[in-house]
Amino acid sequence: MAGTREPRTETDAQSIAFRVNGRAVVVSSSPLQRLSRVLREELLLTGTKVGCDAGDCGACTVLLDGDPVCACLVATGQVEGCEITTVEGLADTNVGGRLQQAFLTHGAAQCGACTPGMLVAATALLERNAAPHENEVMDAIGGVLCRCTGYRKIIAAILDAAVKKAGVEETASAAPTAISPEAGAAVGKRLVRLDGKQKVDGSEIFGADETPAKALAVRAIRSPYHRVRFHFGDLAAFVRDHPGIEAVFTAKDVPGKNCYGVISKFADQPVFAEREARHRGEAVAAVVGEAATVEALEVADFPVSWEELPSLKDIDAALAKGARLIHEKRPGNILVRGRVVQGDVDKALDAADVVVDAEYETGFIEHAYIEPEAGFARRVGDQIEIQACTQSPYMDRSDIAAILGIAPERVRIIPTAVGGGFGSKLDLSVQPFLAVAAWHLGKPVRMVYSRTESIVSTTKRHPARMRLRGGCTKEGRLLALDFAADFNTGAYSSWGPTVSARVPVHASGPYYVPHYRASTRAVHTNLVPAGAFRGFGVPQAAIAQEQLYDELADRVGMDRLEFRILNALDDHTPTVTGQVLGEGVGIRACLEALRPKWKAARREAAKFNSKTAGALRRGVGVAGMWYGCGNTSLPNPSTVRIGLKRDGRIALHQGAVDIGQGSNTIVTQICADALGAPIERFDLLSGDTSITPDCGKTSASRQTLVTGKAAQMAGEKLRRAILKLAGACDCATLLFNDDGITVCDGDKSHVLALGDLPLDEHGYVITSEATFDPPTSPLDENGQGVPYAVFGFGAHMAEIEVDTELGTVRVSKVTAAHDVGRAINPTLIEGQIEGGVAQGLGMALMEEFFPGKGENLHDYLIPSAGDIPPVESILIEDPSPIGPFGAKGIGEQAVIPTAPAILNALHDAIGIRVRKIPATPDRVRAAILAAQKERGMENVRG
Ligand code: FES
Ligand code: FES
Q: Using CB atoms within 10 A of its CB, is residue 15 exposed (0-12), middle (13-18) or buried (19+)?
């Protein structure tokens, strides 16, 4: 279960000589050892990433005598006498250096986990083809997966690097972004991400990239069945009989509580299962020892016997009368329910001119970030330190403290760079095993999940089963929506309560629905826990609600976009929770921005369809979205500290973990402008819990809003303190230099010599700290209240082509309009939109995870470069009165409308609705055949 690991073959090690990045090296290795392993662990070239060890992800791509290869599939013996180029060697080459710069200026690296592989593959292309066509670029990077960017900025960057060499003028698609703004003018600029350099030169440290000296390896023993009773044999004898194994830990070794969970009220997940495991992949024990021994261990040799038990694998089985309870204290296997009710739905539906019923179902979706979970831990006196990839350092700290039975102050969490998270790295993964092992052994320990281990044990997007009924007037005014959904939350709670609470608030979409009833249930099954995945259930709900609205529009004979514009929320109409936002409601502007493109695309599609007699049909679809930033009606604070140093530099302690979305840059831009200092003066201190205050978790599109606002407040506060010290007025400008600050106040200037000033308890001349918690209110028993202080809004339009004989769908373009309040950094926002579109496309057409099957990136398909169409982003700026400089979140927002827009386009093209998502070719084809049978038609058309 912990993944297949190749045996270490140190006994047959040989000297193998080759060249790496122009340098001659000799390694002592088995000739069968993977080249990726030798590069990373023997030569410490950790820029080469390992995402799968199976040739599926391309993260490990290196050049072998100039040709791109997956280093995980190359035996080291094969490279004897060869030249290897890794990402660390690219800067020394003309093409590689240009590509690195182009990746930076185009924002082509987000988390950066795929970036080395992308750069190497692109270098190989440009070395043999100086001016490739876009299709050739897509072919060249087709084997390297990226889960963040949506590929379009990567393609633009490669084309940019190429055209420069060919001496051709830059194209519009290759607009560079590098700008160094003046003091006070950073907000709104396309600033290159501040942590970008290390992502393109291979020096970024991800979870698996650092190993303390003499670290022991930790390997979990996991349930092979969905539900199993287990019995250990003689564990002491196992350790005694296996030289190199130091210890085995089980539930009885957990010093504190063998229980954790992201929402403490619902915490239910054990570090190690006790007697019975509730899902396939659940850990029952951990083996700790020398890396080679632990990795070579055959799981079958571990002394445990498994007794497979009947399991509940779907919502119906779990809800069936008399079904066995997965958690004793959760009757009916229902973890939690959610509810929002407004008006009189039944009466309104009776009075409606048109009523439509619909049902939709979605499956598990795997996060498929390129970096599997990894990290290390060490005990330092009576403290534990854990360095790992995480989205939530302070939450990790609390849970690890409870697991070890120690005070949170004795736990230090050091987040590494995160190679994609999308919600799953909010939950603990390697951390509890590392903590228990390091605590008991007093030695450093390291754990790196295999791809299979990552897939079987970490959270997924909730499968949803949704039933809805909506009604409107014959003029197209929405009257009522009745929405009910069950979410398969798996064996443990994770973020099930959040999904259940958030979906009823959002299932109306960004429209005025006067009569509304939405109810949800999170249902336990014996499957892998479902948790947070970009949108917390709202993308699933949007698939249902946005298709229903298309059906209503069709029934009243109204244009589908105009139907949405007619019903769009505005500043003064109440939401389904009775909240009136007052200002900053940009949904109508988003929809109206699509109008000319919608009309043109619809005309084009109709023309194509009328002229084409073959199997191809085109369609255009639209969908709207809204998304509340931050926690639902719960406290949600971030605290930012900044310190003025004697050398005139500013330390920015901001604990928002940048998982690729760009918070390191965005928060700095906001703080810089609030203070009135140039970006270059800032020294960024990241989310290490020993040096930064709590900025909360990176989720729910909250970091720009919440941490950004705290950074703005801290910047303004520091500015006021400096002005006070100089006796200057509010309108004075600050000039920072290495000796101090010159405060210019009209025609007077005052020099603050910082070197002469005393230092405070933080070691700064002046420290400024600010906390921001967005104002919300609890929801009442009908879900009425103020769940979020700020919403983001958006609408996507998808243009597609369907092959009715094959059932395949090709998306040819997505136009995405988003109200972001204020575009703090347009390049980073576009990157979020393009990445969201790619994930939405995967959700609509490709991605479904079946627990127990296809637990790898070969069978679980995510979009590759060739699947993603051009994406046109339209940024609407309807400022939030609360957000920093008016800004709203964009991370979750970007993924929500893509899938329903594509599914609406599918209906537009061929007149069918696929009720079970994703609309894979077999399902599309089956729906076509069923429709043909029903309608007695040869060809199904919209
Ligand atoms: S790690 Fe080699 S292809 Fe994924
Ligand atoms: S930037 Fe490509 S995987 Fe994150």
A: exposed
- pLDDT higher than threshold 80 for residue 2: no
* Local confidence band at 183 (pLDDT 50, 70, 90 cut-offs): confident
Tell me: pLDDT of 249 over 70: yes
Identify whether 826 is preceded by a cis peptide bond (ω within 30 of 0): no
Distance, in Å, from the CA atom of 69 to the CA atom of 83, rounded to the nearest integer, reads 12
pLDDT in tens, 786-806: 999 999 999 999 999 999 999
Phi, then psi, of 894 in degrees rounded to 5: -65, -30
Q: Which two tokens stand for residue 167?
A: 């001496």
Cβ–ligand 2 contact at 543 (below 6 Å): no
Q: How far is the C-alpha of 889 from the C-alpha of 705, rounded, in Å?
A: 6
Q: Is the pLDDT of residue 257 over 60?
A: yes
Q: What is the sign, positive or negative, of the torsion defined by CA atoms of 855, 858, 859, 862?
A: positive
Beta strands of 71-153 (E only): which ranges? 83-85
Partners of 455 in the β-ladder: none
Cα 71 to ligand 1 centroid, rounded to whole Å: 7
For residues 467 and 359, the answer to whether their CB atoms sit within 8 Å is yes
Q: What is the pLDDT of residue 179?
A: 55
DSSP strands (E only) in 525-668: 616-628, 638-644, 650-653
pLDDT higher than 90, residue 416:
yes
Tell me if 119 CB under 6 Å of ligand 2: no
Distance, in Å, from the CA atom of 646 to the CA atom of 644, rounded to the nearest integer, reads 7
> pLDDT at position 180, please?
67
Three-state SS for 686-755 is CCCCCCCCCCCCCCCCCHHHHHHHHHHHHHHHHHHHHHHHHCCCCCCEEEECCCEEEEEECCEEEEEEHH
Work out the pLDDT band at 746, boundaries 50, 70, 90. confident
Contacting residues for 754 by C-beta, under 8 A, at least 6 apart: 644, 645, 646, 647, 648, 739, 740, 741, 765
Are the CB atoms for 459 and 421 separated by under 8 Å? no
CB of 823 closer than 6 A to ligand 2? no
Cβ distance 847 to 862 under 8 Å? yes
Ligand 1 contact, 371 CB (< 6 A) = no
Q: Does any ligand 1 atom lie closer than 6 A to the CB of residue 53?
A: yes
Residue 286: predicted pLDDT = 98
Of 157-166, 598-607, 728-737, the range with the lowest mean pLDDT is 157-166
Using a 6 Å cutoff on CB, does residue 109 contact ligand 2? yes
Pocket test for ligand 2, best of 104, 110, 119, 193 (most atoms within 8 A of CB): 110
Q: How far is the CA of 146 from the centre of ligand 2 (A)?
A: 5
Percent of the chain with pLDDT over 90: 91
Going 566 to 568 to 571 to 574, the CA torsion angle's sign is: positive
**Confidence check: pLDDT of 881 > 70:** yes
Token pair for 233: 């044999």
Count CB-CB contacts under 10 A for residue 327: 15
Q: Are 238 and 245 in contact (CB under 8 A)?
A: yes
